[in-house]
Specification:
Blueprint lengths: L6 H21 L4 H33 L3 H24 L7 H30 L2 H17 L12 H22 L5
Helix pairs in contact: 1-2, 1-4, 1-5, 2-3, 2-5, 2-6, 3-4
Length: about 190
């Protein structure tokens, strides 16, 4: 969850972590509890990552990158689609016939989002910000991920201000639920 480095290094490490989990999903022979645990692991990582980006990365993109507003809006829309898929997966049995197509859709959405960020957004942000600004953003992202929710909340507001106010409380509740259920401990 917290890798260190500037914002771009931190988020790219998250991307590699999720890609590795997707690889494990693709190589799984069956479903059952092993698949459920992996879906939970991916969900936790993606939700924390998304909340942190919405709180700090996208406001920085709006502020520092020329034409950053529409770019940030597009990335937030990507997050909303992924969060809806995660919510569906959370409720679905691993032997449901729709599980495999929905997992493929999740992997496709996230992979396209990652590619867009790494190819377009991150290089533009690197050019627009000082190394110190990127380091400070990395610290903020790590702090946000440590307090972020671990479950999808697609109806929660995605504005940075609302997220900064509401995410710690939702995160606390989610982590308590995870502790009681053992979710995310695989």
């Amino acid at each position: 969850m917290g890798h260190g480095g500037n914002v771009i290094d931190e988020l790219m490490a998250d991307h590699r972590e999720v890609a590795e989990m997707f690889g494990r999903m693709r190589s799984m022979a069956g479903g059952g509890q092993e698949l459920r645990d992996l879906i939970d692991e991916v969900t936790i990582e993606l939700v924390r990552h998304s909340v942190a980006e919405e709180q700090y990365l996208y406001p920085a993109v709006r502020e520092h990158v020329e034409g950053g507003g529409p770019m940030a809006d597009k990335e937030i829309q990507d997050h909303a689609r992924v969060e809806k898929i995660l919510k569906q997966l959370e409720k679905m049995a691993t032997d449901d016939a729709q599980m495999s197509p929905l997992l493929r859709q999740l992997m496709d959405e996230v992979t396209a989002h990652v590619q867009d960020e790494e190819t377009n957004l991150f290089p533009m942000l690197r050019r627009a910000c000082t190394p110190q600004q990127l380091d400070e953003l990395g610290d903020k992202i790590r702090r946000a991920k440590s307090m972020a929710p671990t479950r999808p909340h697609p109806s929660a507001p995605s504005s940075p201000t609302a997220s900064k106010l509401l995410a710690p409380g939702a995160g606390l509740v989610d982590r308590a639920r995870d502790l009681m259920s053992g979710r995310g401990k695989s």
